[in-house]
Amino acid sequence: MKVLKSIFLFIVLLGTYSYADINTTESNFTSKVRLVSSNQSKLAEANISDSNVTIVDNFEDEFKDSNNSTANRFDPLEPYNRAMTQINDKMIIHILDPMVERYNNLIPEGGRVAVHRFFKNAKAPVRVANNLLQFKLRNATEETGRFVVNTIFGLGGFFDPAESDLHWVEHDEDFGQTLGYYGVSDAIPIVLPILGPSNLRDVTGMAVDGYLNPLRSSKIGNSNYKIAKTPFESLLYKGGDMFNRASLHVGEYHIMRNDALDLYTYLQDAYSEHENEKIKE
Known about the structure:
By secondary structure, this protein is an all-alpha fold. The protein has helices at residues 2-15, 28-46, 53-68, 78-106, 109-122, 124-133, 137-153, 161-164, 175-181, 200-209, 231-247, 252-259, 263-280, and strands at 189-192, 196-199.
């Protein structure tokens, strides 16, 4: 056990020296959230004076999809969704953030990015399968190549020579996006504990992807390639992935939270817009 811990620590620390090639720009989701926030804030300011009616009308025409998406959506779970949004908010502010702050003080950013790469590399079978289902054959081939190269030459995925040396970029596809690709509606919004905003289509997609994800245990089919052998191990890997990912986006949730006129609709609109753009790609 001590040997394994030493190897893991070595890889994490080694990751700090490869950090020069890491893209630290904000995530697409955060950018979309800020766009929705900006739209809502500008709309509220424009409505202050009757003399600005023309400005408001033009603004609403330009951004009507992002601002009205939740208002026009069938939302039978709204009371639950709003309650869960508030619960998640309290958990992030009072539990997750303090833990992430301590974690960041312990592990350098380059090491945390290396861990993030490991989790992404392990989930390559999900991306390969969904690219194939959407007939994106070139992307599926690149994803397969990335998995092989990064697993062998990237120390199990802690490093990404496939992108830095071969310029093979990740093509992120999941079964929720595959369903959307074939025209399946997102149905109703659902706020998941800890995970946050989602919808019925994407929750279904998560369940299907779990059978291919090596980090999720499964009793169906051949699971010899699974890294997680038990539900507890699945939860451990999922939690570790989420926690480490949160450490790379410190402060972003607070920006979203402070800009939101209505936290539930704000996050749901941003999530929907982000997912719809991913489906169109």
